[in-house]
Specification:
Elements lengths: L1 H18 L2 E6 L2 E3 L10 E3 L2 E5 L26
Antiparallel strand pairs: 1-4, 2-3
Length: 78
């Protein structure tokens, strides 16, 4: 179950990451492989893409937070 949750969250993060990118196909791909025979012959050309990531601005801001005091009393030894 943990693996499936991890896979779903990784897939979701990947989809969200690509949603902000501008992707343009710059070259078509070509696959020619022999029919019905399993040999090492053939030609595979992957299509080319140009990806422009979104502009991200990261800023830091200093902030003071008041944290409550906690008194801890250790348990007595038995």
């Amino acid at each position: 179950m943990n693996k499936s949750i991890l896979m779903i969250s990784a897939l979701t993060a990947g989809c969200l990451g690509l949603a902000g990118c501008d992707v343009n196909k710059t070259q078509e791909g070509d696959v020619t492989a022999p029919k019905y025979e399993k040999t090492q012959e053939g030609n595979v050309t992957m299509p080319k893409y140009e990806v422009t990531p979104p502009d991200v601005k990261v800023e830091t801001k200093e902030k003071t937070i008041t944290v409550p005091d906690i008194d801890v009393t250790p348990a007595k030894d038995k």
